[in-house]
Amino acid sequence: xxxxxxxxxxxxxxxxxxxxxxxxxxxxxxxxxxxxxxxxxxxxxxxxxxxxxxxxxxxxxxxxxxxxxxxxxxxxxxxxxxxxxxxxxxxxxxxxxxxxxxxxxxxxxxxxxxxxxxxxxxxxxxxxxxxxxxxxxxxxxxxxxxxxxxxxxxxxxxxxxxxxxxxxxxxxxxxxxxxxxxxxxxxxxxxxxxxxxxxxxxxxxxxxxxxxxxxxxxxxxxxxxxxxxxxxxxxxxxxxxxxxxxxxxxxxxxxxxxxxxxxxxxxxxxxxxxxxxxxxxxxxxxxxxxxxxxxxxxxxxxxxxxxxxxxxxxxxxxxxxxxxxxxxxxxxxxxxx
Length: 337
Prior knowledge:
The chain is an alpha/beta fold. It folds into 3 domains: 3-92 and 173-250, Rossmann fold (3-Layer(aba) Sandwich); 94-172, DNA polymerase, domain 1 (Orthogonal Bundle); 272-335, Ubiquitin-like (UB roll) (Roll), CATH 3.10.20.30. It has helices at 15-22, 39-48, 68-76, 94-125, 131-146, 158-164, 190-203, 212-218, 223-232, 239-250, 275-279, 285-288, 298-304, 307-312, and strands at 3-8, 31-35, 52-54, 57-62, 80-87, 175-181, 207-210, 253-259, 263-270, 290-297, 317-319, 329-335. β6, α7 (190-203) and β7 (207-210) form a beta-alpha-beta unit.
C-alpha cells in the first residue's frame, strides 16, 4: 500500500503548486501517485537485472477548498501531513498563518474529545470496563487542547496514545513543514523560512525550504537539465526526494527491498516492525503463515548479483519472527501454506 500524504496549509501558501510539482503534472482531481526516488533501488536493479522494478509510492492529495470541517476531514484520512507555509510574496508571516491553521485542527479535535467524554461518562456509570481509565486520558487531552496545544505534544505512553486514536485525532498526525520560499531566497529561504524552522524545531517536526514554483518548472525538464538548474540555486536534491525522506522520518517509516529476477521492489514499512508484520506489506496472509526471513544488505546483494548466489555461499542471515526489519534490508520471506 502507498503512503498517504495530504498537502495542507493556509490559503495562498502554494499547496496546489507543490502538488503539481510533486506529481509532475500527472495528478488528476487533486490526487496523484508518486514514485519515491531511492538510489538503493537503482543499484539493486542494475545488479539483479529484473524483468520489473517497482519503487515505493506515495499517494499525494491536494487539500480541496471548503469549510474548516471539510479541510479537517480531508487531513484525517492521511498518514502524514505536509504543511505548506507561505514564505514568498508581500509581507509573508508564515508562523502566524500556520498557527491559525493549527488552531482549526485543535478545535476540531477538541470537539471530538468532548463528544467522546460524554459517551465514556455514561459507560463509566454503567460499569463498563476501562471506561474510567479512558475518561482520565480524554480529560487530560481536553485540558491540553483547551490550552491551544496539539495532541502530539501531550506526554502519553504508547497505550494511552492508542486510546486516543478512537476519535481519529488530526493533531496526532505526523507532519512535515515546507517553507515555500521565493526563488531568489534559496537555498536558505530567508527570514520567513527561518520563522518556519523555529516553529518546526519547537514542535520536533522535519522542515525544509523549497520553491514550489521552481520545482514545478524543473519537473518539466530532463534529469540533466534539472541537476544543472538546481545547482544554480545551491540545491543538490529534488523537492520530491527531500519531502519523501522527511515523510519517512515523520511517519516512522523505513524501506526494505525484495529482489529477484521477476521483480526488484521497495516496500514502505513501520520502523521496528517484526518480520511477519513487514511480510504482510507484500500480502496480508504472509503474517499468519510466516516461517522465517532470509536477510542481506543492498551492498552484499549488489556484490553477489542475486539472492541465490548469496544463499549458495551461505551469506544470507536467517531470522525468525522476533527479528525487526531494518531500513535498507533486502529480505526473502519463507512462507508456509
